[in-house]
Amino acid sequence: MKIAVFGTGYVGLVTAVGLANTGKKVICIDNDLEKVEKIRKGISPIYEPGLDALLLKNLERLAITSNAADAITASDVIIIAVGTPFDGNRIDLSYIRQAAREIGEAIKNTDDYKVVVVKSTVVPDTTMGVVRPIVLEHSGKQEEEVGFCMNPEFLREGNAVEDFLDPDRIVLGVSSPEVEAMMREVYDGYRDSAILITNPTTAEMIKYTANSFLALTISFSNEIARICENLPGVDSEEVFNGVIHDKRFSPIIGKERITPQLASYLRAGVGFGGSCFPKDVKALRSFSKGLKVDGKLLDGLLHINETQLEHVFSMGLKKFSGKARRIAVLGTAFKPNTDDVRESPGVKLAQMALGQGIQVAVQDYVALSNTKALLGAQVEYYDDPLEAVEGADIVFVTTIWPQYLDISEEDFEKHMPEQAIMVDTRSHFKERKAKKWRHRIGVGQPLPVNGEVEYSLRNNGYGIH
Ligand code: UDX
Questions:
Q1: What does the domain layout of the chain look like in residue ranges?
Q2: Measuring from atom 2 of ligand 1, which residue has the nearest CA?
Q3: What is the CATH number of domain 211-464?
Q4: How far is it, in rounded angstroms, from Cα 194 to Cα 190?
Q5: Is the four-CA dihedral 398, 401, 406, 407 of positive or negative sign?
Q6: Ligand 1 centroid distance, CA of 119 (Å)
Q7: How many CA atoms lie within 13 A of 300 on its CB side?
Q8: Measured between alpha carbons, how far is residue 39 from residues 132, 159, 252, 326 in Å?
């Protein structure tokens, strides 16, 4: 079986290398000649832990070309893994349509049965309602001559290789039993994973629902955190810990309590970023509006996320006594183990500060060059967090890089000005809270103003009579 993969971003390239790793012959297609050259040499054009090694290991089974027609003609299965950005109003399917046209043109004069797979995140009915008509129109083929499948990816940036090599589920939205058989062969190297067979539109909906649920968990956490910040002695971490101990959330098997990774999304923070959650939730909401569905929950989820950054920023400004002149942002990658700065909370906080005429220093371990491409000469760039915090009135820790935990409070206090404060936006230093670290405030923790939290139920109209 030969497989062609359109697009060599973190989804396309990881998919190509992951399938080659199970013995499949894979041809990557990309029109970026620089990327083509790099991959040919076994160099990954994207930062993804473990990808370079896996690429090198499978180079003899992996071809890369900018000639889509040849790759498609030679393949049995063609996987579309191109970008589907949000254009401000709805999902942008232009790259998907372009790929579908090229596939249609390329298979016009072929006789063998092909399966076209959509792996990109697309709104429901894109596979059968957009890709299929375009492929059939441009190839002149009949419906029964070409198979279609929607096979969503569930890869996390920074963990994409691990997530592909050890998938918790493989969803196959197939147009016919023949397509199912071929797709089972594509994934025959993944016998331990659950294979969920459904139709293409359901597969599209599974993907959006999965991401929206994770994003919802984060926004829910941030709204609960805002309540806790007004309550003396109430730390949202302890609140969520109490919730997570519900055995429906963390079952006790044998003598052991199994805490799901989902628990880490039930946590106050600076809001979600990245190239997936924001665009996927917005695309789903825009899609549901088209169906005249009342989407107040998705609207609310997005609203909380968009205002959480302002909330955290103003928390820092409020806590700092005086007018802040300079801030430091520790972490501009949207999350650890990636150099991706798309929808990055750290970058957005820097832009907020610049908008108020505040000087900005930023630090990151791998995302500085991508940050420079966005912020240019407006900010100062540091590799070392202790240099970045020098002279800062407020330090925002926005990416939970593990390396920050190797830095002692004493070192931070040595380099931060006496009056400076640290907004630990993801409670990264939570275990240090107990020592009443004079600099630190945490999101979702009571925010004492002038020494104490201004709170009284009686002030809230509940009275004692
Ligand atoms: C996400 C989904 O997890 C993945 O399944 C899907 O295929 C693509 O979208 P990704 O955006 O790469 O993956 O990473 P993820 O780790 O889920 O982070 C998304 C956002 O949630 C980030 O802003 C991150 O900081 C935040 N997050 C993540 C949390 O707030 N808490 C966590 O425990 C993990």
A1: 2-198, 211-464
A2: 156
A3: 3.40.50.720
A4: 9
A5: negative
A6: 18
A7: 13
A8: 30, 20, 46, 42
Q: Which atom of ligand 1 is nearest to the CA of 276?
A: 9
Closest atom, ligand 1, to C-alpha of 210: 5
- Whether ligand 1 lies within 6 angstroms of the CB of 272 is answered as yes
Query: pLDDT tens string for the chain (465 positions)?
Result: 999 999 999 999 999 999 999 999 999 999 999 999 999 999 999 999 999 999 999 999 999 999 999 999 999 999 999 999 999 999 999 999 999 999 999 999 999 999 999 999 999 999 999 999 999 999 999 999 999 999 999 999 999 999 999 999 999 999 999 999 999 999 999 988 999 999 999 999 999 999 999 999 999 999 999 999 888 888 999 999 999 999 999 999 999 999 999 999 999 999 999 999 999 999 999 999 999 999 999 999 999 999 999 999 999 999 898 899 999 999 999 999 999 999 999 999 999 999 999 999 999 999 999 999 999 999 999 999 999 999 999 999 999 999 999 999 889 989 999 999 999 999 888 776 555 666 788 888 875 544 455 565 656 677 667
Q: 326-330 and 394-397 as β-strands: parallel, antiparallel, unpaired?
A: parallel
> pTM for this one?
0.94
Is the shortest distance between the CB of 263 and ligand 1 below 6 Å?
A: no
Helix (DSSP H) and strand (DSSP E) numbers for the chain = 17, 16
Return the C-alpha torsion angle 126, 127, 131, 132, nearest 10. Answer: -130
CA-nearest of 401, 391, 319, 397 to 358 is 391
Helices within 149-199 (DSSP H only): 160-165, 177-186
Instruction: Please check whether the domain covering 2-198 is classified as CATH 3.40.50.720.
Output: yes
Residue 454: count other Cβ atoms within 10 Å of its Cβ: 11
Cα of 285 from ligand 1 centre, angstroms = 19
Q: 211-464: same fold as 2-198?
A: yes
Task: Please tell me the distance between residue 388's alpha carbon and the centre of ligand 1 in angstroms.
Answer: 26
Task: Determine whether 461 is exposed, middle or buried from the number of CB atoms within 10 Å of its CB (0-12, 13-18, 19+).
Answer: exposed
Tokens 């931070």 correspond to what residue? 412
Q: Per the structure block, which two tokens stand in for 128?
A: 């059968």
Whether 149 is catalytic = no
For the chain, state the CA radius of gyration.
25
